[in-house]
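From the pipeline queue, job 12 of 40. The input is one protein chain; the requested action is below.

Action: predict structure.
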Amino acid sequence: MRCFSIDLSTQIASVAIVHNDTAQIFESWDQKSVPRQYVFVRLASLFSKPAYQPESIDQFVVGLGPGSFSGIRAAIALVTGLAMPGNKPVGGISGAESLASDILLESQNPKVVIVGDARRQHLW
């Protein structure tokens, strides 16, 4: 299964194409140093390769934060637009869930708690 993922919720944005649990392409960039529209330049470059056309993607995944609401909203709109022509599934995953999954794979502990700074003396 080939999966396209994108995360625009944090300062470091990323896109990836994963096939059978192996990242075939991974690109990231600092969103503070480029305009928000830069993601479309990266996608045009990514999808210009014949092996990585949007039609070849089986599933689309978007990062759901925590982070910038505008970035999350833009990423959801983007993957929804890419998935629509082929009626492909779209899913989301939180950054905390992804981090917890990575830690669980590397450790022997059966439980993991991820805590982040929600600002104003609050944690999430």
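Job complete. The chain has a mean pLDDT of 90.
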